Every structure is written in C-alpha cells, then in structure tokens.
Amino acid sequence: MLHQTAYVPSGARAVHQAALDAFATAQSAATERRLAAVEAIWKATLLGREAVSRHTLIYDILTREEIARAHVEPKSRQLIAGLSFDWLSKEFMPLYRDVDLQRPFVDEVLWSLHYGYRTLLGRTVAILSIALDQRTPFPFWLDDTLVREVLPSLLTTDELQEVNNMKAGSLVKTEAYIEQKIISAAKTAVSGRSHSEGPSKMPEASWRRP
Fold this sequence. Notes:
Blueprint: H1 10-56, H2 58-61, H3 64-69, H4 74-77, H5 86-92, H6 108-134, H7 145-150, H8 157-165, H9 170-191
Helix pairs in contact: 1-6, 1-9, 6-9, 8-9
C-alpha cells in the first residue's frame, strides 16, 4: 500500500517562513525597545539623585537634633541656600519627561521602584523648600508623613529599621538600598523573566505642596 506524502504548496511554505521571520523581527524589536526603556530609567535615576543631593546634603551630614536647629544656624542654612519650590517643576521634573514615555515597555515592578524613588527624592526637597518659604524649622525627612507612606513599598522591614536607627546618613543609605533594587529589577526586565512579586503601586505626586 502506497503512503501518500503530504503536499505543502510552495506558496504556503513561503507564507509560513515569512510569519516566522516577522515574529523573530518583532521579538528583536521588542527586546531592543525594552533595553532602551531600562537604560532611560537608570539614567533618570542617576540624574534625579544627583540633582537632589546638592539640596539634601543636610540630611546626610547632620543629625536629627542638628537639623531641628539648622534654620537658625547660618552655616547650616547655607547648605540649602537658594532652594525654592519652583526648583521641582523647573529643574527636577523635566529630568523625567522622556522616561515617562518608556512606561509601556517595562514591567510594573521596575516602574514602581522608579516612580517611588523619584517621589521620595522630590518630597525630600519639597519639605525643605516649604520650610524655607514659611520660615519654619527644617523637618527631618523620616518624620514626613508622605515619606513614611512611600518607604515601606521600597525597603524591607529590616532595612527600614536600620535606616531609622542611623544617627546620620540615613537618606544616602536609603538611596543606595533603592538603587540596588532598581538594578536588580532592571536585570530581570532585560532578561525577559517575570517577577514572583514586587512592590505595591506608588502613590502619585507626593512631592506636591500640601
């Protein structure tokens, strides 16, 4: 008995190959887009921290008690001289204008870490600028209600406890912890793997004037 060999028309084979090629091209393009998005987020992360650090140095070199008296100490006030609330809209937020366009190309974990971090950075500057404007004592960043709402989504319980117990340098330590998490999430995003779990969605625009 003769076995009949299945016949695939050459046209069908060509269509099938074209579909495979198109899929491979799409996968490659998606990977490149994801890589570009991750790179943009990391660049914005570094630029944001650098921009803020010149104004928040007070939180890394002074203790909580020294910050409470800083508004009446000329040398301490010089650390944030010239800071205004307008700085956030004119200097800080434009750093993230392009990166916001990358949100569709990264997963929720990386974006939440990025957004939470920039919220934290912006808020630390906002509370100082508000105090300057109102001529009130400078608040300690960890005592701010909005900061305390954001931090549990960015740090573990042990990390929070460590930061809370530090006499000085608590902000830069927090930044280091969060940036390490962003790096880890970025590596996962680039690899195409999924996260088993991630931080909850960050509250929006917490740096705005209350």
